[in-house]
Amino acid sequence: MKNFSLFLMVLFGLNSFGQEGGQHVFQFLDLDLNARSSALGGDFIALRDDDVSLALSNPAMIQESMNNNFSMNHFFMPAGINYGSLIYARNFEEVGTFTGHLQYVNYGRFTRTDVNGAEQGYFTAGEYSLGVGYGKNLNKYFSIGGNFKTIFSHYETYTSVGVAGDLAIQFYAEEQNFTATLLTRNVGYQLKGFTKGNREPLPLEVLLGVSYKFHHAPFRLSIVATDLTEWDLTYSDPNALPTIDQLTGDTIPPASAGFATKLFYHTNFGLEILPSENFHLRFGFNFHNRDALGVEGRKIFSGISMGFGVNVKKFRFDYGLNFRASAGVSNVIGITTNFDAWRR
Questions:
Q1: I need a surface site. Which of 16, 202, 251, 283 has the fewest CB within 10 A?
Q2: What is the value of pTM for the model shown?
Q3: Could you tell me which residues are beta bridge partners of residue 146?
Q4: What are phi and psi for residue 59, nearest 5 degrees?
Q5: CA distances from 194 to 2, 16, 154, 162, 315 (A)
Q6: Are 61 and 55 in contact (CB under 8 A)?
Q7: Euclidean distance between the first and the last CA atom of the chain, given in angstroms as a whole number
Q8: How many Å apart are CA 95 and CA 220, to the nearest integer?
Q9: Which of 63-72, 143-152, 240-249 has the lowest mean pLDDT?
């Protein structure tokens, strides 16, 4: 018997802020991919600039100005888990701009034991996605884009392979400083299951994000609506039973989430403070993280995230800090550069 208990606890806790744990395969595809997004509450898709690291989440923002941009982001998670992404953009005349990316998760090393608890060595677990993206401007206001991804997962001796795609359309009004993005991600199929004859659905998700930059103040506000294909993301204990009020004798049904709670489970908030082109401050709030992962009575900073971005010569450095409560605190560092700058 393999000892997967710790691994499963970490895996489901890590992914509980996306689709519900245990219902989909390749749930690592829902993880934040860069420091900027993590600092802004997660799933940050409502923007149009030359940040190539965001193009992995929103291919509709892929554009010619990203040519020869390269970005890498690495997350340091609790329990020794590490994950991150690499992305590179290249423009081809008369064809358009493409990106190539790698997303990876390393769950670490685990002790293998038999049914009696005797150690029998170690095993590893990890997941990877390798793909390409393409974006195109339709006119002054609208752009579209897509990603194609090949996916590989391995847990000890169990492996799985799949393919998936993302489709996005973006509206950008430069004069009004307003951006809106509609994204459908992880449309795909598990080609090979972890066990023979068993295939599971991918974490298909539809998101809608909007952002607005004030004309005469250095602030950008963003709101992202997540998991639009499923209304109730809250958890109800199937074993909970009604209780009896000792004073009135009335039957009290098990507690359940109200309309406001269900609504805010879908909503991430972000704020960027832009005092200059070379320095940005970022703050975010994710109610889903706070309510689902927070420890009752000890939530404090649960669901809150923050970070900054700074341009230094040929590099842009980004940092994000995300308080995931019972799942711990995550730190992420991002580095972006343009290879053309090194030839000047």
A1: 251
A2: 0.84
A3: 134, 167
A4: -70, -15
A5: 15, 21, 8, 11, 41
A6: yes
A7: 59
A8: 33
A9: 240-249
Q: Which residue's structure tokens are 């208990």? A: 5
C-beta separation of 79 from 108 below 8 A: yes
| Cα distance between residue 238 and residue 242, in whole Å | 11
Residue 252 has pLDDT above 90, yes or no: no
Which pair of structure tokens corresponds to residue 166?
Answer: 């993302």
Query: If DSSP codes are grouped into helix, strand and coil, which group holds residue 230?
Result: coil
Structure confidence at residue 38 (pLDDT): 93
Count CB atoms within 10 A of the CB of residue 92. 10
CB 16 within 8 A of CB 31: no
> Could you tell me if 202 and 185 are in contact, meaning their C-beta atoms sit under 8 angstroms apart?
no
Cβ atoms < 10 Å from Cβ of 21: 18
Structure tokens at 240: 């909970």
Q: Per-residue DSSP letters for 12-56? A: HHHHTTSSPTTSSS-GGGGS--SHHHHHTTS------SS-HHHHT
Identify the residue whose tokens are 């004073």.
247
Name residues whose C-beta falls within 8 Å of residue 127's C-beta, 6 or more positions apart in sequence. 26, 28, 104, 105, 151, 152, 153, 154
- Domain spans of the chain, in order of start: 5-228+266-343
Question: What is the third-level CATH fold of 5-228+266-343?
Answer: Porin (2.40.160)
Report the alpha-carbon distance of residue 241 to residue 175 in Å, rounded: 56
Average pLDDT over residues 113-139: 92
Helix (H, G, I), strand (E, B) or coil at 262: helix
**What are phi and psi for residue 177, nearest 5 degrees?**
55, 40
Tokens representing residue 79 in the block: 């329990």
